[in-house]
């Protein structure tokens, strides 16, 4: 059974139909990369999975539970999903360490001393142990994004959602973040990623999904979708971003 | 590094900048002196000036009134300190009430909205009269009837509505991406407010908040209408003896002396808040 099952999801903002009968299956341990032009619905899909948006129709199941059911405890669902945003969204008034320990202490009831130890381990993992007491605005973009990843990972999520997390970074900082994702993938983390980094998609993705007008136009392994696309629109998109 | 000497070009630039600085200082000094001289001469040459000076700016009369007025001012300071604490608490409560979600909180949201609408519109003086003269006239037992308490209550009621709006503006100014990040970590609405939104909002609204307290300091003088002997009332009593208005000027100067440190503090706090620009997320 899939860890994440998205079936016939529909979402519109006013008259703008962003997701149109969208379906996608993500197996446990799989890394699925969403590609497509701006406005094709990638970010909206991630926001729907994280319940930051309410779907207009359709079902999203996480681990067999229908999370689009309005009776569901949204805080509980969200605490099992990690999301990392394009603009990091770190809390500027808290130190890096406090950013990471906030959810464990307040949501999961971990004792502060334990949360601190675990957070420091996690920061060490993303190479930021030395910056634990710094405020987010004292860090570079790449460091902030790694801190945001640590903040999401420390809650041991079943699923990680990554929304164009390298597009606000300088090219030389992109590498450090992508390396971290590669490590996560090899540890068996299930990930749903929006990205424009095709090289990265080719190396880590199990499946690539090309979105067009709110539909998954072409889905398959990177060797197929990226190297040998069948749909004219996919071919067109890939040709344009390679220029 | 240590043996670096500015190049000839740089030395020439530094010299030029020094000259410009001196020049700017001279221009500023001369224009100030000229303006002050014009005002002094202009006011001083009006036909009524000797009379005005004797009535408003009589140094000996002012010195004589100073102790009484200063004693009145001490009451203003105490009223203002106690009220400021209550206003922050009540104002913050009102602001939070307005942000509560869920149908069960509808009455609280309604109350907070109606409250701020009404008390921001009502003139402060009217509220002071209503509470200061109206409530004791009810002759209810158990209620205090000192004018200073009801005057203070009027200040708290009115100012809380302004301060609530300042807090609410702060809460709403925190970018939605901060809420999204907090909620996606599993924090509840209340936890998000408590740990993510409010700490940032309060820092952000400190300058306008302090501005309201500078204004409160002056308005604490309005409770004089209830017969409380504060600085203004003390000055009025002094003036009543000989129709010399200098005690009012003394009271005014003392109020200014009191607000200047608070104003400087406001500026300093505002300057220190550099980190916001970066915070809050771009998208």
Descriptors:
heterodimer, A: 243 residues, 4-stranded antiparallel sheet, 9 helices, B: 283 residues, mainly alpha, 10 helices, 78% helix
What letter string, H or E per element, gives the SSE order of chain B?
HHHHHHHHHH
Oligomer: heterodimer
Query: Could you tell me the radius of gyration of chain B in angstroms?
Result: 26 Å
Physical arrangement of strands within the biggest beta sheet of chain A: 6-7-8-3-9-10
Rounded to the nearest angstrom, the radius of gyration of chain A is: 18 Å
Overall pLDDT score of chain B: 88
User: In percent, how much strand structure appears in the residues of chain B?
Assistant: under 5%
The total beta strand count of chain A reads 10
Compressed to H and E, one letter per element, the order of chain A equals: EEEHEEHEHHHEHEHEEHH
The counted number of beta strands of chain B is 0
Give the name of the CATH architecture of chain B.
Orthogonal Bundle
Give me the secondary-structure category of chain A.
Answer: alpha/beta
Main beta sheet of chain A: 6 strands, mixed
Low-confidence stretches of chain A: none
Number of domains of chain B: 1
Report how far the terminal alpha carbons of chain A are from each other. Answer: 39 Å
Please estimate the helix content of chain A.
25-40%
Largest interface: A-B, 30 and 25 residues
